[in-house]
Amino acid sequence: MLIIEPVRLIMIGSVGFLSALIGTGLLVRYLAHRHVFDLPNDRSSHSKPTPRGGGIAVIVAITIVWGVGFITSDETLGHDLPILLAALLLATLGFIDDLRDLPALPRLLAQVCAVGIGIWAISAEGGLFSSMLPVPIDLAMTGFIWLWFVNIFNFMDGIDGLTGVEMVSIGIGLSGLSAIGIASAEVLPHAVAITAVALGFLVWNWDPAKIFMGDVGSVPIGFLIAWMLITAANGSGANIETTIIVLLLPAYYLADASITLGCRLVRRENVFKGHRQHFYQKAVIRGLSHKTVCLVVLLTNMFLVAMTWFMTPSHTFVALTVSVLIIATLLAWMAGKHPGATSNLKAE
């Protein structure tokens, strides 16, 4: 059933939003009834037991909306099917981890398998550096970045609304880049879907959150968004400028997680052990509300989105420089002292 593109995108967005909104609402009651709670501990940013596993509704909603996207177009599933199956594999293991706290090794092996499937699926088009490097090196580097990005989304899912805000920001950014022809047109319906699903989930996850996403959602969502970024970077006329523009969208997440990990490695800390050293966590510890942190991150992300939309390829490195300065300012603000602030332990 072929439907004209604007109507198709509206259908995808509507189904994605409603599926996530209704599904998450049902999960709030079900998980609470089953006593599937995230219990506060010394590393938590919340102070009371809260249902965990809202990512189930997010992944189900994405699966539904991908089906809607497929049946309303004349396209074949192509490599979308193995990507979705790999994400469902990660979601399954993530839910087990939410219930039983699996060791790091089986989680890492599952992520490596999923990324391997992803690399196989995109091998014909190439990875992030297809215009610059030989195919084997390009795919190897893309696979490493993909694996890191999956973990970034897991690491950064620590306060109310932050993951949803990042999903919305990247989804809006990719939708615009695809619409104006900088990114691959293939990514547009997926970007609309991610944005809509995130908005539906945020109704329940906004500060104060009634449910947390959990590994069942954050890990596969990180996997899917990484795939979307790679696909976007491989649009027509893909080059280093396109790759830089696309990678500016998740730049805050990349900076916060990477700098935090680097500092922990320098201090010879166990990087597999939970902690509260991310910049956004420091901001909450020092008294800023989850809502305030998320709104400032959203504002920063929208600036990054605007940079990618309106800067011409010849100004890419200017955009990169300005974006680095903006993100550095954000991180400094998060890590700085806030007069009169007290520790704020409320949410995810």
Q: Biggest sheet: strands, sense, closure? A: 2 strands, antiparallel
Tell me the strand order in the biggest sheet: 1-2
Strand content: under 5%
Mean pLDDT: 89
The rounded Rg comes to 19 Å
Structural category is: mainly alpha
SSE arrangement, N to C: HEEHHHHHHHHHHHH
List the helices and strands and how they pair.
Layout: H1 5-33, E1 37-38, E2 50-51, H2 55-71, H3 80-100, H4 104-122, H5 135-155, H6 162-179, H7 188-205, H8 215-233, H9 240-248, H10 251-266, H11 279-285, H12 290-310, H13 316-335
Antiparallel strand pairs: 1-2
Helix pairs in contact: 1-2, 1-7, 2-3, 2-7, 2-8, 3-4, 3-8, 4-5, 5-8, 5-10, 6-7, 6-8, 6-12, 8-9, 9-13, 10-13, 11-13, 12-13
Structure characterization notes:
The protein has 348 residues and is mostly helical. The chain has a domain at 5-246. 68% of the residues lie in helices and 1% in strands. It has 13 helices and 2 strands, in the order H-E-E-H-H-H-H-H-H-H-H-H-H-H-H. It has a two-stranded antiparallel ribbon. The model has no long low-confidence stretch (mean pLDDT 89).
Summary of the model, kept short:
This protein is an all-alpha fold and 348 residues long.
Keywords:
348 residues; 68% helix; two-stranded antiparallel sheet; mainly alpha; 13 helices
